[in-house]
What does this fold into?
Amino acid sequence: MPAMGETDYQVKVAKDLEDLIPVFMKNRHKELDALRVALAAADWEQLRQLGHRMKGVGNSYGFAHVSTIGKYIEDGARSGDRASLQASIIEYGDYLSKVQIAYE
Amino acid sequence: MRVLLIDDDEDLRNLLSRYIRGQWPDAEIEAYDPLERDLPGIGFPLGNYDVVVLDYMLGRGDGLEWLKALKQRQDCPKVLFLTGAGNEIIAVRAMKAGADDYQRKQELTREKLLTSLRDLTATPVERTVSPDLAARLEGHSLGAKVRIPGIKVLHLIGEGGTARVYLASRETDDEPLVVKILRQEIVLNKKALERFMEEYAMVERLQSRHVARIVGHGNYENHAYLVMEFFEGGDLNRRLAGKAVPPAEALRFFRELMFALGDIHEKGILHRDLKPQNLMFRRDGSLAIVDFGIAKNIAAADRTGHGEILGTPRYMSPEQVQGRALDLRTDIYSAGVLLYQMLTGKHLFDGETAMEVAMHHLNTEPPPLPAHLAQYQRLMEKLVEKDREARFRNADEVIGFLSRKLEQERPAAPLDKTQQLH
It folds into this structure.
């Protein structure tokens, strides 16, 4: 996975979507927990589905990096690449803790 | 507007509902969660809705199966089907199963969603009042009318100046394809029609993996058409999205472009209209050139009349701006302009009018690359030299330069390997 740049942590969201973001972020944190549980259980199908969902929802809200990490998780789950999945999930946690959202 | 929104993702249901209510504040939206509810049964009032938005992955169900079941009902309204990006066979199957429109979920913007819903729910009056809508509907009906042996034309996906572009599929195996149907005004223009047919003849002759694969061409009731491969990775314009791409990736794309130019120049063809919209990516990440609408045989290029300026001003060579006789160095210049854009995320020259941009190509020194890209400065200078005698002479020279000057400095960069799309 390419290294994260400063701008990857900065997200611009349309003002009229502001009230949706708390639910969106809460769901991302729940997703992170689910990813960790699935990895611990080596549940590749669950990981694939979670990655696929991230891929679909991230860009839609302007969180391109959620989609990017989702793609890596989906691919990693398909190939059963535990090390890559672990790295992606750590990166996802790091991203969620640092992401800065600007409404405009 | 009454909308049935079927998606297993709460966030997407929330987002799409917000988009719809922003446009139609009185819209009635039923957010239907397939994780909690089964496929709407026979007692479900499907006919009460104007449109259904249906996702292709429903968590514990298959959106395609739901689509087929819903479409078997007499009271089923129009269906907008959401598919995955880079997996066009799902779109093919959805359209064959009766979907009225499809959108790639990952690329679904507010504007795309609303346009689609507007098209699907337009009243007869709205259809005549809005010129854009009328044009799209005309495009849709044309696609439904045209018959191509072995090919099913499924859905209008784009409109260009010379042709409408449709998603299509091969009937034997559902392979996604693109059908371009020439606009009538072009068909009536003998010169433009000749250009379109030349595109087919030239591209077929190329047989290069760096050039779009042509499946067939022909005429149906005076509608000239071309059938070609579908590019699931989209075009360079979409990849750039107004930003720079990492240098290693930009160089990889550029190197593939040089191989493509090498192939077409070897066959005696100039492209003359290189731009991000004409560089397409396959699913495996490989790049191919499309749209040879204004390409010319090198032998014939010097017959272009003075004052006839074809091409896109942002990427035109100085000699092209002047309407001078062209050779393959014109494509080298345009490729250089593209490389500048990939590396910096900016256009080489900007201007308020096409003419202003064109004149910059003629008279203004190109801006230097930013300091962190200084290692590519010499390459850039040799690509966008205004004097073509001082420019790289051909794609081989550029590839040689890349190998000698750049790849030796970065031995780890896998420039010659095809990479998966991210």
User: Anything to note?
Assistant: The radius of gyration of chain A is 13 Å. Helices of chain A lie at 21-40, 44-61, 64-79, 82-98. Chain A has a mean pLDDT of 90.
